[in-house]
Amino acid sequence: MSTKKHQGIENVDVIIVGTGPAGLGAAFHLSEHAPSLSILLIDREKYCSGGLLNDCKQNYTYPTGFAEGNWTRQEAERLLPQVEACLKPTIKEKQNLSVYQRRAERLGVSLLNIRQAHVGTDRSKELILRLRTELEARGVRFMLEQQVHDVFDTSDGAGVVMANGEIVHCGTVVVAPGRKGFEFLQQVMERMGISYIDNEVDIGIRVETRLDNYPIVSDYYDPKFLFPDKVRTFCTNSGHARVVLEQYHGFSLVNGHALSEKHAANNLVNFALLKTIGLKDPVRSGQQMAIFLARLANEIGGGKPIMQRVGDFRMGKRSNSETFNDDLFSFAPTCPATAGDLGLVVPAKIMRHIWGALKKLDTIVPGVLHPSTIMYYPEIKMYANKPAFLDNHFRVTENVYMVGDGAGTSRGITGAWASGIRAAEGILVR
Description:
Elements: E1 12-17, H1 21-33, E2 39-43, E3 57-59, H2 73-87, H3 97-106, E4 110-112, E5 116-118, H4 124-137, E6 141-144, E7 148-154, E8 157-162, E9 167-175, H5 182-192, E10 196-197, E11 200-210, E12 224-227, E13 231-237, E14 241-248, E15 251-258, E16 268-278, H6 286-300, E17 306-309, H7 310-315, E18 338-339, H8 348-364, E19 374-381, E20 386-387, E21 395-397, E22 400-402, H9 413-429
Parallel strand pairs: 1-2, 1-9, 2-6, 9-22, 17-18
Antiparallel strand pairs: 3-5, 4-12, 7-8, 8-9, 10-20, 11-16, 11-19, 12-13, 13-16, 14-15, 17-19, 21-22
Helix pairs in contact: 1-9, 2-9
């Protein structure tokens, strides 16, 4: 292992691993309130990945995006204006909300009233470039397309070990790898002896249908429904919307994107229905359970996730290529998944609760269970890590902090950014 400084970088005060919203939130706050600090952001990607790059949907109302147990309403509402000041969102208008809320309440369902903004996958790089340019103007440095292998904190100081074995020393490390970095984060915690809990995970499907079958999105861009049995809607996309594959190590998940309003609409809508699973002893890891389920689905799907039409699911039939025709089923899937049978891959209890939520949703917004509607599986959110924090600023050792979705402090862009601010506040206090 080499101990020389990486690419001439010396005397770094703070290293931030990850350039997603949590890392950027920490960098903006530190550079504003302590401009003399030298700050280095490191990311294995060319652009910051995750929610800022893909779709970039933002929610500015508690509790959406804030992990339970780590946030109070007062703390979230204190920081959300700071997040908004950096991201400069255009808040979307809503209408007819009370109509849908009354329908939902009759069924024991809640519809949250959330302030929302949407950038779009096609315009997200513009936002990221603006944020990076502002930070560089403050003297913040970026090391992109460089992978961190490990993090350390010893009596001689903190720092990171790069994938090529080189070491970069610093005073403080903020680890913010996002959901895709959950495995990296777990490995770091285990090597550093940091206790953590990994007993919760969100598992579900992504629904794709025609705009005519889910017209609520014309009134409320990303409607947030909370159903019984810990099921909720998540990340609704409309306008020019599509379902995409997310590549992980050895398997793929599904997710949803939408382009900005300057693109012509394709008259499709997609959204996730997620069930939160809380595991008890002796289950070792919610993340490992999620990986097992994802790999099972990919194995049965010939290396891809599985999709099934609602009409076939209701009849107990698997979907096949003939199901995706231009007869009754008048739209083609936007994601290259494998036609099949969700009953073979989704655990029965999870599917029962998700299907129950879909039936309630079809009463609130009639049409979503049209036979042509597609259900894709799996959609899984990897933010179950819950490190044992030493203080309210997400510190895990003397000089290391862990923030963002991957560290279980948030569930979305604004919550992640706010968690980065909290870590930065802790660094400034200490």
